[in-house]
């Protein structure tokens, strides 16, 4: 009987789990004995790290041909529930009735979602760059501002959250607003975060660089505060300040996809399953967890993979390989990713590139921007549908960072 590997999710981790699993099956010469199925709403890879940008073309490349080239089937729909005891999932197809699918190995790669607390007005008036639909809605809203009467609120954007996405979004916004409202418009961009200083979570080395970039791009910091309420025309902060603003972009915090809660075992405060060294869910036989759905140690000195594309690519390769390796008799591979880099886009100022978990500044401004553009436009995109070329880079210890 054909053994079944089911992968839930077609994001960075899900895609590379599928490619790595296909490679392992091919290496073992057991393509007729193991079937690999990916389940996601559409056969597309959403380029989520770029959704803060103004131009949203090519942000969802089709991976159908790629999956076909390596022998992976795609089912359009979602995994709605997991029955770990019976090794089954409930599949909700885009068209048709729910189905029960059995698996020998299941890889949870459904990623993460933006955390949206019950702040008054957030759901009604807030925008995000977490999904392609969200980014497109924000883009349409920003472009509509030009048809509204001139006002301080129309010309003001508040970004809630001073992490990676918040900083990249905020430093991009002034350029976008000027292109829409005109170079002479009196625009304001404000970034709000609960940290003692915007950018302090990046450490002492990057902080002065971020401070400089915010000042140069004209982004006003509001540190040590949170958004308390939002309405159609304003934002109220936790200190009582009311800011006239018709655009609020929420970027504050991520949580693992709710499906992760159905996997037995320990979970962290972000909802991620605590995986073992091979990215197995220790309390669920046959289940592997990867990408933003897993809490995994990157090394033996206490560092844990953050929810980033950089880690999702490697986590996917390892989980997919191991899921297949257990079925075809190949050695499994422990996850390890001790090298850590960051590249933070800071709008027209440039970009900040750091190395190490202590984030040592290596490149800034235009030098950093060139690296960021290469990451965003080349490294994270899916490869061409050439099976041999794909298998050459789908091994579980492949590293793409410099």
TrEMBL record:
Give the family, as the similarity comment puts it: Belongs to the NADH dehydrogenase family.
| GO terms (BP aspect) | aerobic electron transport chain
Q: Which branch of life, at top level?
A: Bacteria
Q: Enumerate the UniProt keywords alphabetically.
A: FAD, Flavoprotein, Oxidoreductase
Which InterPro entries does this entry report, sorted A to Z?
Answer: FAD/NAD-bd_sf (IPR036188), FAD/NAD-binding_dom (IPR023753), NADH-Q_oxidoreductase (IPR051169)
GO MF terms listed in the record are: NAD(P)H dehydrogenase (quinone) activity
Q: What is this protein called?
A: FAD-dependent oxidoreductase
Q: Which cofactor does it need?
A: FAD
